[in-house]
Amino acid sequence: MKKRNQHYWDKILFKIPLTNVTKNTLSILKIFLVGAMLMIFNTSCDHTTNSRKKNTVQIVIDSIPEGMVWIPEGSFYQGALVSDTLAMNHEKPRHLVTIDSFLIDVTEVTNAQFSKFVNETNYITLAERPVDWNEIKKQLPLNTPKPHDSLLQPGSLVFRNRPNGVANLYDFSQWWSWKTGANWKQPQGEGSTIVGKENHPVVHIAYQDALAYCKWAGRELPTEAQWEYAASGGLKNAMFPWGNDAEILKKSANTYTGIFPIKNDNQDGFTKTAPVRSFPGNGYGLYDMGGNVWEWTSDWYNAQYYTNLNDNIKNPRGPSLPIDQKAPEKVIKGGSFLCNATYCASYRISSRMGNSLDSSSEHKGFRTVINTKIKSVSD
Length: 379
Ligand SMILES: [Ca+2]
Ligand SMILES: [Ca+2]
Fold this sequence. Notes:
Mean pLDDT: 84
Bound molecules: calcium ion
Helix content: 10-25%
CATH architecture: Alpha-Beta Complex
Strand order of the largest sheet: 13-12-10-14
CATH topology: paralog of FGE (formylglycine-generating enzyme)
Strand content: 15-25%
Distance between the termini: 42 Å
Number of domains: 1
Order of helices and strands: HHHEEEEEHHEEHHHEEEEEEEEE
Structural class: alpha+beta
CATH superfamily: paralog of FGE (formylglycine-generating enzyme)
Radius of gyration: 20 Å
Largest sheet: 4 strands, mixed
């Protein structure tokens, strides 16, 4: 499948000056493309559906694969602490969850790891794929005009500081730019490179890219509950992966220090991604659960999901459907190098955000899990 979908059209609708086509025409295009995307998505996400069923039975393995740690079964409270003044409504109410044991990557998937996958499979990420107009127009009204070629080039979203300030902190298009040529191998667009960044997290990863890697590696994406349980590192009532001390943020996670999005003062040592393991691990030995790059989970996003849950649920896997099936979103967790307390304190464990499936950007990656029981952890 070589198609660009919703986020591509979001970009040309809202980010790129319209030339040969009118905005209204593009709006119509978008509506039809979202519908088409849904059909495509229903096929491409069979893995998710299957894993939902399959995951009720854990596999048994003999030893822990390199680069993973075993998270013991247990119970925890998912969602925001009552004392968390930064929490949003969709993080509430806090509810008791029981989780089976599983294995999770110690770090975000790195460029080196993703390179190995690509070298073995020749996989092409969504951000690298050109828009195939001949394919897309089959799903559009007859005689829909072809957009200008400049709007059909592969690319992704790249952050830019706005030293002159912004009108508000709601309109993210003020600091995101659609950049032709931006992808996991060229994180900042044409001319940039990952040479020397082999140990940085891979970025510009859309949901289906993460799934493709998981399939190749024999892994899955974590559920939101698994991710949150792992992020706590075994701590009870912790707001952050390192505890409750917000004052040690710059020593604990790669975020945006300074005045977002005007000036990054670089107090934590990194303006973009940091090599994984640059900051201390949490209680389970997991790195960058707060900050560095956002991480995909397998759960559909629904802002009301927690309000409908019973307490003490076991192995929750999120809503059965996205809240908006025309614009389906998955939950991403942990925040990124662009998080800042004044704007997006998503390095908090309970923080969550919905992200459209085909949206990629330079601050979004993933890590994987294996749902497993181990014969003997001491083997
Ligand atoms: Ca930083
Ligand atoms: Ca992270």
